[in-house]
Amino acid sequence: MNAASRRTPLLLGIAGLSLGSVAVALWTQHSLGMEPCPWCVLQRLIFVAIALAALLGLAWRSTLGQRLSAAGLALLGLCGVAAALWQHFVAAVSDSCKLTLAERIISGLSLDALLPEVFQPRASCAEAAVNLLGLPYEFWSLGLFVLLGLMTLVLLGARRR
Questions:
Q1: Helix (H) and strand (E) counts for the chain?
Q2: Per-residue pLDDT reduced to its tens digit, 5-27
Q3: Is the pLDDT of residue 113 over 70?
Q4: Is the separation of the CB atoms in 102 and 42 below 8 Å?
Q5: Which among 22, 38, 115, 155 is least buried, having the fewest CB atoms inside 10 angstroms?
């Protein structure tokens, strides 16, 4: 099995898990009434960006494409971990999450206006602090970012063999 055939399932898995997490977030929002805060929305954006970086790795098979994809996956995974931790330890205990970095990124990219059903914050960080199956919602996100990071490490190992 060559390196490219080892990378393909990993990249597809990374993209699928990332987009699946956004689908679950939208389901919990629209079916269970769990409205997202700016940090929740930023994590959705990071998951979409991770999926795009993985798809870039699938499409651009050159060494440069693989390196850019892996670098993007690693950087975005770290950003996701930081966003989930910030949401839990700082934003969720703040009185307001207005004009935070997350809100500025989302509104600066105009995603809240372009795709409001996906990227519009609809709750404050304190209101969005909910548990899902006994764990804070952002810890589910954190766990998935860590899993995606581990998959990226395996991907990097597959590239070197």
A1: 7, 2
A2: 678 899 999 999 999 999 999 99
A3: yes
A4: yes
A5: 115
- Compute CA 79 distance to the chain's CA centroid, rounded to the nearest angstrom: 8
Per the rule left: phi > 0, alpha: psi between -120 and 50, beta: everything else, 134 is left
User: For residues 55 and 19, is the Cβ–Cβ distance under 8 A?
Assistant: no
Residue 128 pLDDT > 70, yes or no?
no
DSSP per position, 11-80: HHHHHHHHHHHHHHHHHHHHHH-----HHHHHHHHHHHHHHHHHHHHHH--SHHHHHHHHHHHHHHHHHH
Residue 125 has pLDDT above 60, yes or no: yes
Pull the structure tokens for residue 66: 């693989």
Tokens (6 digits) for 148: 């995606």
Tokens of 101: 């970095």
Read off the tokens for 59.
């499409």
